[in-house]
Amino acid sequence: MVFATLGARVAGLVRVMVLARFGTTGEINAYYQAFVIPDLVYFLIAGGALRTGFVPVFTEYITKGKWNQAWKTFSSLLWILLILGGLIVAAGILAAPMLAVLIAPGWVGGEPELLKLCGHLMRIIFPAQLCFVVGGLLMGTLNAHKHFFWPAMGPIVYDFFIIGGAVLAIAIPGTFGLPTIAYAVVLGALAGNVLLQIRPLAARDARLQRTLDIHDEGVKRVIKLALPVIFGLAVAEINYIIIRTFSTIVAPDQGPAVMEFANRLWKLPAGIFGAAIAIALFPMLAEHYAKDDEDKYRRDFSFGMRNTMFLTVPGAIVMGLMPAAIVRLLMQYGDFSAQSTAAVAEVMMWFAPGIVALSGLYIVARAFYARHDTKTPLLVGVIHTDGADGPIGPGVGDDSKQLRQRRGADGDTQAPRRAARRSQYAEFANPLPAREFIPRRRVLLGAGVCRESARRRGRTEPRCSSVRPAYHWRCRLLRTERGLQGARAIIGAQNGRTALRRQESRARSRRNHLSQCHNRLPTTEYSANVV
Questions:
Q1: What distance in Å separates the CA atoms of residue 168 and residue 180, rounded to the nearest whole number?
Q2: DSSP 500-528
Q3: What is the 3-state secondary structure (H, E, C) of 1-17?
Q4: CA dihedral defined by 387, 391, 394, 399, rounded to 10 degrees?
Q5: Contact (Cβ atoms closer than 8 angstroms) between residue 506 and residue 528
Q6: Quick one: average pLDDT of 400-428?
Q7: What pLDDT score does 51 carry?
Q8: Distance between CA atoms of residues 89 and 228, nearest Å
Q9: Which DSSP helix (H) or strand (E) runs through 187?
Q10: What local confidence, expressed as pLDDT, does residue 226 receive?
Q11: How far apart (Å, rounded) are the C-alpha atoms in residues 448 and 465?
Q12: Cβ(301)–Cβ(285) below 8 Å
């Protein structure tokens, strides 16, 4: 996985280096500006929302052995994306000249040829987005099966096609030009993102069904998870589109190309390390969450964050201190002049500190997505982009009214989600009526849920019932044959022998009482759980 992802990033860097031979002035600006709207479609549907919404749901189904439901959801989403993607592509092709005017207002009066070329190239590039949308679903399915090699090879094939088109345009400029590179984009997207992924899926017994069920439970869950991601990505992507649009006004002769080259370079370390680790970590986090294994979830998340920070901090320092040297080494060939190097280096210097943050964002966002929580990254993204009250934005400080309202009265950000889960685990956590535990301290044997807090707070449900029982240390002990022995060891270490005897005696008495009153749990399954 690491080598394939590294190869994809190296291929992307070679692509940028080859295209840099066109320089930063002239028609290359129309080429890069033509990608603005198509890239928005890709990032919203294929690049982010589709994978982050589909992978956790599909992983949960295959983890629980629900293969028919998993492939039904896959098939329904595939047909939905084909129809929706086809409509978006058709609309983009028809509206390409108007979209070019919208994203390049600086060229309307002074650079009409660039504006016309931008619209023409946009029409050629738009069909590639349909391949990206379908390919994103295929790659997400392979990632859910913990297969990363061929999905990582897709961008390599895509880059090779573009490199081939650029070499032709440079070698034979009279016959081939920027439209040749645009056609290579479409062919590369089809070959790398769709055709290359079909055989690995067939080897994993993929079942494409002739069904289009928008009311399917899995489809609804994917859409529910994807919508917040779409809005979150839209905030960041629209912000970058605005920057690119203003670049045509501030520097109409080289603004889009300079921004594109700087953007590609500063994201290179984050893409090599942060994105690679996040893609590999995402299915495992989703699987740990589906299995209620909180310990492994935290362990893998911590491992990913620590390694990402270790690998990206040096890159951020080097790019921040020596941007001109890096640009000169990688790009100053052909028509890429020293003035172009100075312009790209100045922009990249301001981008460099964000390398570490972007790398960490890849991991943190997928950690939320694996828990089926796509709203929190959306809120953070909106606050980060639109905040004007401080370096982070409103609603972040401990005294923030907005934060208190969002967190709830008890200051718990997960309270609404945990409350919704209580009903799902009520049968397990509450095998006996809750009223038995309110008047005075009782010991529930075998369920693994502490009831003392319910008596103290006067509530009908215990505080611990909002936590998944599999996460509770008492539950993990009591659900094994050696639970009593483990409980004795822990309680003895904490309270001493005297307290252990007292609590065990109380537990035996309570067990006899509960077994006589309620026959829900066999007596042989009870073990002492002392609070």
A1: 8
A2: HHHHHHHHHHHHHHHHHH--SS-GGG---
A3: CHHHHHHHHHHHHHHHH
A4: 180
A5: no
A6: 43
A7: 63
A8: 23
A9: helix 178-190
A10: 80
A11: 10
A12: yes
